[in-house]
Amino acid sequence: MRIEQLEYLQAVARLGSLRRAAEELHLSQPALSETVRNLERELGVELLDRRRSGARASDAGRELLPHVAAVLEAVDRLRQAADHQHQVSRMVRLGTVHAATVPLLVPTVRDFREAHPQTQVEVVTAQQSEIHRMLSEGGLDLGLVNYLTGDDLPPDLESTRLLRGRPVVCLRPDSPLAAHSTVTIDALLSEPLVVMRAGFVMHRYVHRLLRGRTPAFSYSTDGAEMGKLMVAEGLGATVLPDFSVIGDPLERSGAITWRPLADGETGTGAEVFMVVQRRRSGSYPQAARDLHDTLLERAQQYQR
Predict the structure, then answer these.
(1) Which of 269, 279, 281 is CA-nearest to residue 140?
(2) Whole-model pTM?
(3) CA angle at residue 139 from 135 to 142, to 5 degrees?
(4) For the chain: N or C, fewer Cβ within 10 A?
(5) Considering only CA atoms, which of 233, 253, 294, 262 is closest in space to residue 105?
(6) Is residue 180 within 8 Å of 28, Cβ to Cβ?
(7) Dihedral (CA of 96, 102, 108, 111) sign
(8) What is the rounded CA–CA span in Å between residue 251 and residue 173?
(9) Whole-number Å distance between alpha carbons of 232 and 254
(10) 254-285, pLDDT tens digit by residue?
C-alpha cells in the first residue's frame, strides 16, 4: 500500500468524480482509476461506487475514509517534522543525470548561493531510474532528468519542463566532421564514437539513430560531462542534446563545437526534454522550493 493511493481515494471521495480528481491531481483518469482499483484489490473491498454520473465512496468506503484521513494526517505530521529537521540541517539534495549540468545547474547554484548563503546544495550524479527511486523514498528533494519525445512521465512525480532541445553531434573543431554544416549517420559511423552507458536517455537515442549499425570504434561513459571531456581530448565525437553543449565552458573556450544531424536522419524521438522532478505529495523545505524556482528562471534565460 502506498500513501498516494490513499490520497487519490480521498480526492475521488471528496470530489465525487474520477475525472475531476484526475484533473486536480494532474493525472490521467485511467491511471487514477487503476491506482484505486489496485488499492481495492489489496484491501479486498470495493471502495467506490462507479456510475455514469460519477464515482462516490461506497458504504464500505465511507466506513474506511476516517481511517484513511487519520493515516494521511499522521503522515503529514511526520513530513512536517522531517521538513523542520531538513530546514535546520540547511541542506538541499538534487540528483542529476549530468546533461546541461554546466550550462544550467552551475549558474543556478551560483544564484541560489547568493540568496541562501547558509544552505548547502548536494549534487548527486545518478541514472534516471536511481533518481526516481531516491525522489520517491525522500533521499532527494529535486531531480534533473531527460526524456525523449513520446516517453511516459512517472505519475507519482511532479515534472516541470526546463529545456527543450535537439540531439547534435559534439566534436572537436579540428575533427573532419566539423568541415561540414551537418553530419550524416554514415559520416558519424566513420569516426570513433563516445556513447553514453545503458540507462541514459542518449544511449537509447543513439541506439535508435544507428538502427543496428556500429561505429568504427566506440567508448562508453557515464554522463555528458565526461563525454564532452573525452571529445575535447580527441577521442572521438558524441551525440548530446544541444542544450548540453551550447554555452558549456569547453564550447566557449573552443575545445569542442557541434554540428546538427543531417535532415531526415534524426529518427524517432528527435527532441530531448530536460525536466525537474519532485514528489507530488509531502511538504518541502523552503530552500528546496527556492532552488526549484531558480532552476526555472535560469532555464528561461538559457532558452532565450
Answers:
(1) 279
(2) 0.66
(3) 50
(4) C
(5) 294
(6) no
(7) positive
(8) 10
(9) 9
(10) 999 999 999 766 655 578 999 999 998 766 77
Low-confidence ranges of the chain (pLDDT < 50): 88-89
Kindly state the cell numbers that stand for 252: 566557449
**Sign of the Cα pseudo-torsion (249, 250, 251, 253, in order):** positive
Residue 224: which region, alpha, beta or left (left: phi > 0; alpha: psi -120 to 50)? alpha
Task: Collect all residues with Cβ–Cβ distance below 8 Å to 276 and sequence separation of at least 6.
Answer: 142, 143, 144, 159, 160, 162, 292, 295, 296
Tell how strand 237-241 and strand 218-221 pair up: unpaired
**Grid cell of 239 as nine digits:** 551525440
Cell of 212: 543496428
Q: What is the DSSP secondary-structure string of 230-257?
A: HHHTTS-EEEEEHHHHTT-HHHHTTS-E
Q: Are 169 and 215 in contact (CB under 8 A)?
A: no
Residue with grid cell 505529495, as numbered in its chain:
281
Tell me the pLDDT tens digit for each residue of 136-145. 888 999 999 9
Q: In one letter, which amino acid is 130? A: E
CB 169 within 8 A of CB 188: yes
Contacts of 187 (CB under 8 A, 6+ apart): 177, 180
Comparing CA positions, the residue from 136, 191, 152, 147 lying closest to residue 169 is 191
Query: Which residues are within 8 A (CB) of 264 and not within 5 positions of it... i.e. 6 or more apart?
Result: none
Q: Of 276, 187, 194, nearest to 232 (Cα)?
A: 194
Instruction: Identify residue 17 by its one-letter amino acid code.
Output: S
**Which stretches within the chain are classed as H helix?**
3-15, 18-25, 29-43, 59-89, 106-115, 128-137, 185-189, 201-210, 224-232, 242-245, 249-252, 286-303
First CA to last CA distance, the chain: 44
Among 59, 76, 55, which Cα is nearest to 3's? 76
Contact between 279 and 7 (Cβ < 8 Å): no
